[in-house]
Amino acid sequence: xxxLRERTNPVFNTARATLLQLAQAGHTGAAMMADKLGxxxxxxxxxxxxxxxxxxxxxxxxxxxxxxxxxxxxxxxxKTVVDLPCGYTPRALEDFIADKRYIACDLPxxxxxxxxxxxxxxxxxxxxxxxxYHGVDATNYASLRSALEGVEGPxxxxxxxxxxxxxxxxxxxxxxxxxxxxxxxxxxWITQDxxxxxxxxxxxxxxxxxxPAAAKGAVQALGGTADMNTVFQSKEGDKAKSxxxxxxxxxxxxxxxxxxxxxxxxxxxAAKDFLRAHGLKAxxxxxxxxxxxxxxxxxxxxxxxxxxxxRVNLWTITPDGDAVPVEGAxxxxxxxxxxxxxxxxxxxxxRVDSLTAPDxxxxxxxxxxxxxxxxxxxxxSRLEYISSAGLRVLLIMTKRVGAGRVTVTExxxxxxxxxxxxxxxxxLTLQ
Length: 431
Ligand SMILES: C[S@@+](CC[C@H](N)C(=O)[O-])C[C@H]1O[C@@H](n2cnc3c(N)ncnc32)[C@H](O)[C@@H]1O
What we know:
Bound molecules: S-adenosylmethionine
CATH superfamily of the largest domain: Vaccinia Virus protein VP39
Number of helices: 19
Structural class: alpha/beta
CATH class of the largest domain: Alpha Beta
CATH topology of the largest domain: Rossmann fold
Helix content: 40-55%
C-alpha cells in the first residue's frame, strides 16, 4: 500500500524536505526527528537538487514561516490546534503546545509514520502532550470530521504549505470543509500560503544579496503592486531569480492558483472573492507582527527580513456571516472492475481522493494483470468527486491501455469541469 500511496500522492515528499530545512536552521527537535526517520541531510545536500533546495534563503524561509506560525497560533489563544497538513513538522514537541490539544492531520502515509514516531520521542524526552495524528484528505469532509471527534472548540486550524498544491476544485472542497468545521466548532483558520511566493521573493533578496543595503530597495518594491518581475528588475534580481527557479525545479511546486497572491490587487481580489464564494472572509496581518528570532540569519539581515515581512501577510480566515455554507458530498468510495475480451470496465462510486485513489489504482492493476487491454470504460454515473490523486490513476490507465482508448461515461458537471481545467478532456474520451 505504501508504494500505491506514493504513486498517487507524490507531494508528501516535500514535507520531508521541510523537516530537513528546519534541522538545517538549527532546530534540535527537527534534527532528532529527521535522524529517527532516517532522512539524511548529507545525502540530500550531496545531490544537485538537494543543494538547490537547501539554499540558505530557502532554509530561512522555512524557519521564518515555522517560527512565526507558532507565535501566531499562540496569539489566537485557542486551546485546540489543528495542523492541516502537519507533514513532518516538529510542532508537537514545542513547549507552547504543552497546554493545548494538538490534532495533526495529513495523508495517511505521513500520519502512519509520524504518529508512532512522535509518541516515541515524547516518551524519550519525558514530555507530556495531548497529541493525536489522523490520516485525512483535506478535501474529504468526513475524514476531517472524524479527526475532530470529541474535540472542543474554538479551534486554531493552521495551514503551512498546502494551498499552492491544490487545483481549483480541490481548493473549493477544502474551503467548504473549513467553513462547515468553523461553523460547528468556532475559531479561526490561519495561513501564510496565499502570500508564500512573496515570502520566497523577499527572503531570497534578503539572504542572497552581497550587500544588505542593495537588497533594501528591492524589498521595498514588495509593497504596493509589485510582482516578481518588478522585483527581478532590481539590482539583486538576477541572483534572486536563479535561486527561486532552482527552488521551483527542486520541488516542482508551481505555486500558481486562485489562492496565490504574488502582488497585484487583481490577484488579491480574486483570492478574496473565492473565499467569499465559499462562505469565508480573510483578515490580513503583517507577518512582522510575530517576527521570530531566526538562527539562520544574522541580526542585520533579520532586521531586513522584518522590514520585508511588514509587506507580507498572515491570513486569518473566518466564516463570512451572510454567506450560506455549502454542503459537500460525503459519499463512500467503491470500485468494481470487469474485463470482457480486451475491454476493461471500471465502475466508480462516491469520492476518489487521496484517501481512496490507492484503492482505485490497486483495483485497476489487479484487473489488468497479465491481460492485453485494448480499451477501458470508466462509469462515473455514481461518482461525486475526483481529485488530482484520482486523475493520476486515470493517467496510469491511459498509459497502460493506450492513448485515446479510455472512455469516461456520465461524469457529473463538477467532474467534467475538473477534466476541462486540468486538460484531461484531451486524453480521455468523454461520453
Ligand atoms: C509542503 S508539505 C507541508 C507540511 C507541513 N505543514 C510543514 O510545513 O512541514 C505539504 C503536505 O501536504 C500534504 N497533503 C497534500 N495533499 C493533501 C490533502 N489532500 N490532504 C491532506 N494533506 C495533504 C502532504 O502529504 C504534505 O505532507
